[in-house]
Design goal:
The chain is of the alpha+beta class. It has 2 domains: 181 residues, D-amino Acid Aminotransferase, Chain A, domain 1; 109 residues, OB fold (Dihydrolipoamide Acetyltransferase, E2P) (Beta Barrel), CATH 2.40.50. The chain has 5 helices and 17 strands. The strands form 4 sheets. Strands 3, 4, 5, 6, 7 and 8 form a 6-stranded mixed sheet that branches. Strand 6 and strand 7 form a beta hairpin. Belongs to the ATP-dependent DNA ligase family. This is DNA ligase (ATP). Keywords: Ligase, Plasmid. It catalyses: ATP + (deoxyribonucleotide)n-3'-hydroxyl + 5'-phospho-(deoxyribonucleotide)m = (deoxyribonucleotide)n+m + AMP + diphosphate.
């Protein structure tokens, strides 16, 4: 199976921010040196590949497992926007404070909000718990930003510069920073060796980026992601109760997108903790459905169907011949404001 991600409508009435077109320069001031700062920039996204590209034209970074964010700094005013364009400034107070102390008047920094475990590895579940879970409203005192691109700097839109130049300015801005905004280090070398080491260290994977690429919104191939373990987002369509499992959830039933329909792709029964299982069960019980939202070929006697509104992040090793997930493990629920793309089946 292959997936061709496409934007999904947000499952909320809260409208995301939208970019406004750049205003033309005032003819009476033809030498005006500043560019209008965008209200929002659609992020550059990475294509999924099985192997990393190789060659001196590529640089590599760790794939950070968290929430994609953009920090907008405008003369002391900070906005932190999610990938879907929602303002989460209040949810990342440490990142907001770190942005104000950077010593630059204006900037747009692209990166990932993460929480690191004891080994210094990003942990999606810990990040989500620090925010109060899906639909939670808590500010996270643990979250930090791993910054990997700079789109606007000191009054200038630099998206049309090549990546190596944007990285130069980003490194200059963040040199020596050890607080809540840190540089995602670029790694030179053989992509295959870097990928092997990343997997050995228990990381999710790596990102390869073309050195000469400009910053282009969308998934256009300038950035490539290669995962050590497959991890994708799926819709929860039901659960199997259990008298012995945490919070009574034996397993979650999952579906992928195919056109305008949901297609059942198997279940997941591992990866739950006491805290996230209780919260998940409470959420599931509030969205019960009378009819299954998918065609289902398994035992029906005890399945509890739910409305297809929850997006779960799932790790898995492979697909079976009949289109089901193998060795799946639950990582957590995606927040709708993160605008996560549900796995698509062509």
């Amino acid at each position: 199976m292959t997936k061709t991600p496409r934007p999904k409508p947000l499952l909320t009435g809260e409208e995301p921010l939208r970019s406004s077109p750049r205003k033309p320069r005032d003819p009476s001031q033809p030498q005006l040196p500043f560019d209008l700062m965008a209200t929002r920039v659609e992020p550059c996204l990475a294509l999924v590949k099985q192997r990393p590209p190789a060659g001196p034209e590529w640089l590599y970074e760790i794939k950070w497992d968290g929430y994609r964010i953009a920090v907008h700094l405008d003369n002391g005013n900070v906005r932190i926007l999610t990938r879907g364009g929602h303002d989460w400034t209040y949810r990342f107070p440490a990142i907001e404070a770190a942005a104000k102390s950077l010593g630059v008047g204006t900037a747009i920094i692209d990166g990932e909000a993460v929480v690191l475990d004891e080994q210094g590895r990003p942990h999606f579940g810990m990040l989500q718990n620090s925010l109060g879970g899906r639909r939670g409203k808590l500010p996270s005192g643990q979250a930090m930003m791993m910054a990997f691109d700079l789109l606007y700097f000191d009054g200038h839109d630099i998206r049309n510069m090549e990546l190596s130049s944007r990285r130069f300015f980003l490194e200059s801005l963040l040199r020596g920073e050890e607080g809540a905004i840190r540089l995602s280090e670029a790694i030179d070398g053989d992509g295959r060796e870097i990928f092997t080491v990343a997997c050995e260290q228990g990381l999710e994977g790596i990102i390869a980026k073309h050195r000469d690429s400009t910053y282009r919104s969308g998934r256009l191939g300038d950035w490539i992601k290669v995962k050590c373990v497959q991890s994708d987002s799926f819709i929860v369509v039901g659960y199997e109760p259990s008298s012995v499992a945490r919070a009574g959830i034996g397993s979650l039933l999952l579906a992928a997108s195919k056109g305008r329909e949901w297609v059942y792709v198997g279940n997941v029964g591992t990866g739950f903790t006491e805290s996230n299982a209780e919260s998940l069960r409470n959420t599931l019980d509030r969205i019960r459905a009378k009819r299954p939202p998918v065609e289902y070929d398994g035992p029906r006697s005890d399945v509890v169907w739910v409305q297809p509104t929850l997006i779960a992040e799932i790790e898995y090793r492979a697909w079976t011949h009949d289109g089901k997930l193998r060795h799946a493990s639950y990582k957590g629920l995606r927040d709708v404001q993160d605008n996560a793309a549900v796995y698509e089946i062509e």
